[in-house]
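Hello,

Following up on my earlier ticket. Below are the two sequence lines again, exactly as submitted.
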Amino acid sequence: MSFQINENEVDIIIGALRPDLTAFMEAWRAFFSKFHLIVIKDPDMKEELKIPQGFDHKIYTKSDMEKIIGTTSINFSGHSCRYFGYLVSSKKYIISIDDNCFPAHDPNNNITDAVAQHLTNLQTPATPFFFNTLYDPYTKGADFVRGYPFSLRVGVDCALSCGLWLNIADYDAPTQIVKPRERNTRYVDAVLTVPLQTMMPASGINLGFNRELIGPALIPGFRLAGEGKVRWETMEDIWCGMCAKIVCDHLKLGVKSGLPYVHRGIEGGDNAMESLKKEWEGVKLMEEIVPFFQSVRLPRTAVTAEDCVVEMAKMVKEKLGVVNPVFGRAADAMEEWVRLWKAVGSQKI
Amino acid sequence: MSFQINENEVDIIIGALRPDLTAFMEAWRAFFSKFHLIVIKDPDMKEELKIPQGFDHKIYTKSDMEKIIGTTSINFSGHSCRYFGYLVSSKKYIISIDDNCFPAHDPNNNITDAVAQHLTNLQTPATPFFFNTLYDPYTKGADFVRGYPFSLRVGVDCALSCGLWLNIADYDAPTQIVKPRERNTRYVDAVLTVPLQTMMPASGINLGFNRELIGPALIPGFRLAGEGKVRWETMEDIWCGMCAKIVCDHLKLGVKSGLPYVHRGIEGGDNAMESLKKEWEGVKLMEEIVPFFQSVRLPRTAVTAEDCVVEMAKMVKEKLGVVNPVFGRAADAMEEWVRLWKAVGSQKI
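Thanks for your patience. The regenerated structure is below:
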């Protein structure tokens, strides 16, 4: 990747759920050290944060949150703390990586630079209107396959880059219980555009996005009661990803999935069975959520990510609010998020 | 792949465009020899066909075509000869591989069995209604990602398996001219379901399908004037693939793309520039074809692949026939194809 990266356009956001980030930061030093880091300390965490020397970083704590946004109904605890970083960043690109992830190795045992790959994904066009069987046509050595219409080859801006995981794949609690020893060792050397109107579950573990294009669509809107601190208990990123995909489809922006991989460590010990009690609620709710998102069509008057989120919030309230009160709360959080986005945005200016 | 393959359910179809198939057949011996082969000799080829000993095969020539189907407006010359094999087969699964392709090696330099991989793709479910970021969830070591709705995990029958190409990728003539030395060396170790309502260009080079489910949808319907004998001059398989995708979407069947790879030899020497003159017409027509196929919605009364093709033929005539007479001829060929399919099918009984 011979990409021109402007370091000043990038924030790396780390939601710190563990007090000692030393091993995590050291593992990423070669790839993180040229960028600015925003570290958000989980507001529920009492311990002091340990970060090694030599990183250009700023830490935000619970008291910073209160100072900057005052009272809000949005809950930034656990994995949701990262969203506070999205709010306070003023950069074009955001890369967000969970603090239990490490740089992955490719099949030739070369260490891979997840940050550079996300930026490449975001800076090359996406092709959501027709499927290229040769995967990413903008990768070195690849192109569009015979039969791909030339008018669609210019593509559209890519707004969201969803990376993947080696070692511990991102399974839900039931799958984790069924396959406790399964490890993902398959390195699929591909990036592809998720087609228009195809819904997918984005994960918050390893993600890049263009904040200027779709920032407000990355929403910590949906929380189960007592949502936990291990990934398989969380629904916030699944909901957030579907909101973002809807917004991208509507605004004619692209979403990519595939490279980069990160190596993901053991998640939350042996608690999958415990977690299942919490997540089972989420698993059931997905059966309502997916048909809803598949049916959403936004009005032409929605021309920004903020507009789109406000319109979606209305639809969530109207169509899903009657099914379960959790959706009413999600709709409220979506509206509140747009309010916060605008308020914090105007402070930056 | 610990798959139960019933050899009697499979025909391998070889469209013979070269008289000497010795090197081709010897390269594939380990993978072809347990199956029945149908070899269709390009009706334009004058030379005697050379096939090595030890294969259970049947050759069909121009005179067999005349005997079996009599007079028809469908042109079986060049790459289209393979479609005659689809017509006379009575097996459930068809695997079709161009005679300039050889078994591919994976990154560990193991030779790969394209036939077995196509059959695995066709015998495991497809998941067109929601995107799994972990690729094929039915592959060993993989599963559905967190957030994938459980109700959609059972999937649907897979009807079409589109394989890929190492060495010479399947580019069109303009791309081939721009990148004459480019070789595809990227082995992407993945199979994925092409999502519902996402159109893609299927290639006839390396293909498997379930003949019982969608046989009549694999149509040699669309031919440019003077369509050639090198792939980049052909449009028949691109049109055919879009018809098949529409039928699969309508009948709630799946289409997969990815593995198996084949190693593809040099195509037609240095004639890309010559070919461009012919294919340029196809390149321009794709700009009409793609929006048309993206807009096709079949009526509920169409419940078989034959029904779907007849309905599509009507739409092609009505909507595209006015644009260019080549589409009127394609519509006629689609109707004729269904007639032939039924006629040859009743002979089999």
